[in-house]
Amino acid sequence: MEIKNCTPWPVKLTNGPEFEPCGIVPHAVMKYGEWDESMGIPVTSLEFGKAVGLPPKQEGVLLIVSSMVAESMPERDDLIIPAKAHPSAVKKDGKVISVPGFVRARRWPK
Q1: Are strands 11-12 and 2-5 parallel, antiparallel or unpaired?
Q2: What's the pLDDT tens digit per position in 63-84?
Q3: Pairing of strands 46-52, 11-12
Q4: Is 108 domain-assigned?
């Protein structure tokens, strides 16, 4: 299995290898709504579209991506997200320095 890191930063597994960025950084398209100040503060809506800049799916290749990219492409089963929020992620000075593994985005049933 080949793993490509499609994030702009290295991803280090706590008990494993470090994945350097491959130079491809897809992102989720975002569309902001109009500002609403009816609550006394400016609030807007945010809609997410499909990711752009994502390489096509390849047999035997997993892509490390951001959670926003993975969540915008639920039909893709080749996208993995660093488990930065997992309790066993290693942090130093509030910054994640290694992760125990990866997660896949899944939608809750409606």
Answers
A1: unpaired
A2: 999 999 998 898 899 999 999 9
A3: unpaired
A4: no
